[in-house]
Amino acid sequence: MPPRRAVTGRSQEPRQRFVEELRLLRAKKGVSLRQVGEALGWDWSLFGKMEGGQTIGSPEVAQALDQYYGTKDLLLTLWELAAGDPKQFKERYRRYMTLEAEALSLWHYGVSLLPGMLQTDGYARVVLAAGGTKGEELTRDVEARVGRRKLLLGEDAPPFRTILSEAVLRTSLEDAEEWRKQLENLAEAAARPNVTLHVLPHDSGLHGLVSTDVMFLRLLDDRTVAYTENAHRGELIEETSSVERLQRAYDAVRDLALSPAESRKFVMRMLEEVPCERSI
């Protein structure tokens, strides 16, 4: 049996549906892109790129458009769906991203980078650009990564525990202000009731995850899967004995790490060390 078509005839693919609604709403209102830009205070070319599918903008832009068109939270909802759509990610991440969105709880260890769902726009852009991503692909990938932050928000957000090697927090951005924003974002995230942050000090010594970034996902069927990653590739691990071996290593690392209270103080001390911009 062929797949059923939507009754409205509109696309059911999140990003395309978002684009179609933007075009339809502007046509109904009978305004130009330039008029939209003037009304909302953004360069009109941004709205042209959004209607062309080159970018989905930010949640703030979607919310402003909802107010402008009188559509309540329609565009913001479509933006969230488009930002979290696994089809935005490269093939090797797609299955993992689908499972991540469904996970009942998440445990993470980072030896080199902050986890994507705790990254600011500025941090994500630097990381992705350093890996060779550029142009429109860079814009799309930043939006996709930033969209993952919503997983940790709301009353039904899953518990998330992250252990960060001190090296992650000592590898700052060149732009001091962007680094300040990232540390502030991390401190704010750690204060949420569903987020637990540990910092693993430099002097903790060698351990079973010394060169491995890993995320564990507990799924609806009570299975736990693991995703390991380095600079060149990622691997989804579902075989039970392999996952259990990684979990034992993770538990040992957690025993070496600072407590959540001590870890948050560590982040706050690092914030104090960020140089302030000189006033001119």
Automatic annotation (TrEMBL):
SMART domains per UniProt: HTH_XRE
Top-rank taxon, per record: Bacteria
The record's listing under Gene3D superfamilies reads: lambda repressor-like DNA-binding domains
Where is coiled-coil annotated?
Answer: none
UniProt signal peptide: none
What the entry lists under SUPFAM superfamilies is as follows: lambda repressor-like DNA-binding domains
Q: Which InterPro entries match?
A: Cro/C1-type_HTH (IPR001387), DUF5753 (IPR043917), Lambda_DNA-bd_dom_sf (IPR010982)
Protein's recorded name: Helix-turn-helix transcriptional regulator
Q: Which organism is it from?
A: Streptomyces mooreae
